[in-house]
């Protein structure tokens, strides 16, 4: 038995005491979060079955869905269902787990431009394309019209397009495309600010995904969280996203950066050195070297008083 010779670096603080701009999540957790943990205590003494709850959420979304333990589990399920020994096309600068999981299942990885129209030129018969929209780490969002050439290429070649929409809630007036050869991955981790609660969902091919997911996959906390999301009917997002958008626009003005999502990349010359300098000021940002961008850092939008400290630190470098 040999380990996989491919390593992925993830964001998020490993130690407490730093203002964490490296994790691109909503800085305003739900007001009802404590109720989730109280409810989870009651649920934890039994096996967790949530088929009826899944159907309720499907009705709320209005599309066929499969509940998963975040997008990460969904990617593993994709490996089981469709990645094995396939030709998998991935943009050059994007989320590292795509390549790791593709290689885990023996896929032939083809790297290409981040531009979807240029990536479309690489699609051959029965390929699988993994595409993050908006993209991580740069926050670039592509409209359905801008994705059309890629969707058409996938349809014409009987291929599959996997759209990771982990950050789409943060995009103002975002629209998500549709298509027969399209699977969309969503998560609550980012938009609800709860990376420690592993729960998300897949849109499309629900019968296939439900057939291979682990039983009891989201546990008591995940079920309790999903209950509150359904009860809340996305009111938390309607309340907090405008706060994030307002701060996002302020950061854009002050630092001269631009993004469609709730995070930015910034060219600082030597990302590794800047990360260490900012740590000494109590601020954690993401070194983008693992994305193939060693001159860039990534940082998210947080609360106004926290953003003030980041702006001051970056402008004084």
From TrEMBL:
Keywords of the record: Amino-acid biosynthesis, Aminotransferase, Histidine biosynthesis, Pyridoxal phosphate, Transferase
Enzyme Commission code(s) on record: 2.6.1.9
Aminotransferase class I/classII large domain sequence ranges: 19-314
Name of the featured protein: histidinol-phosphate transaminase
Family: Belongs to the class-II pyridoxal-phosphate-dependent aminotransferase family. Histidinol-phosphate aminotransferase subfamily.
Enzymatic reactions: L-histidinol phosphate + 2-oxoglutarate = 3-(imidazol-4-yl)-2-oxopropyl phosphate + L-glutamate
A GO molecular-function annotation: histidinol-phosphate transaminase activity
UniProt record, GO biological process: L-histidine biosynthetic process
CDD domains in UniProt: AAT_like (cd00609)
Pathway assigned to this chain's UniProt record: Amino-acid biosynthesis; L-histidine biosynthesis; L-histidine from 5-phospho-alpha-D-ribose 1-diphosphate: step 7/9
PROSITE patterns: AA_TRANSFER_CLASS_2 (PS00599)
PANTHER family cross-referenced by the UniProt entry: HISTIDINOL-PHOSPHATE AMINOTRANSFERASE (PTHR43643:SF6), HISTIDINOL-PHOSPHATE AMINOTRANSFERASE 2 (PTHR43643)
Source species of the chain: Pyrococcus horikoshii
